[in-house]
What does this fold into?
Amino acid sequence: MSAIFQETKPGGCYLEDVSLDTLITCRYEATGCGAYTYRSFQEIEDSKTTNKCRLNHRSWAGMCLDEKLCTSDPSNCASGDSQYVPESPFCNIEYNRYVDSPAGPFHLTGSCDVDGQETCVFSERACTAVGGTFSTPSQNGYADTCTCDNVKVGGCRRSDGSYMCAVSAAGCGSGDTYVEWNDSGLTAAVDCRLCADFPKTTRTWQEDLGRVYPLDYDRMPTKPSPGMSEDNLKMVAIGVGVGLVVMVVASFMCGRCSKRGKAAKEFDSQQSNGNHV
It folds into this structure.
């Protein structure tokens, strides 16, 4: 019997107690919460809160600024923590939406060499913990091998023996025991990956529409929205462009009309004053 696939679900950083529903942001580990209170995915699910990361966790990821590399742990950066920001509007867990990024169109992590066997891992810590040699995406030439669906992660073993996938012990609940991604008990029961398989589509015209409206260029969807074809979106963009041109021309003409009207009134006033004298 093969292991059951399981995608890694993040926990959340809360302003106060989780029951108050004050979610600040989604994180895979408590280390990303700072002074906020971390709750694992399972702890959130077991609570009564409705403000969860279950549905929107794919919409955020960090970036190594000097490389324009989308990734979720600073150890994947060639320059380390100094160039890493935990959230970027161009990144999600699947894609890199920075225009012409030298790091390529996908969210990437490093790889771990254990006895000649290369495995994609979440962070350098996940590699050194099992005695492996870590390589960053930069050292791997930004190959699209270690996209999130290929990244192996560990798991939180609950008291009943079941597992919940997690990137580190900092992603587990208080009563869980963390096991590494290559633990035989984990791999026999669960195939833990950072994310599920996703379509490796390249940048499309629909996504480039964000460059026309930079205020709306945020975390792009993983696939085109249903019901809007490329032709429809082009027509919308053309219509908006024509509308802007018409507005500019109309404003210019109104300005000229206003100036002419003012000049005419001044002329009439001068004539009237001359006749009165």
Remarks:
- DSSP finds five helices and 15 strands in the chain.
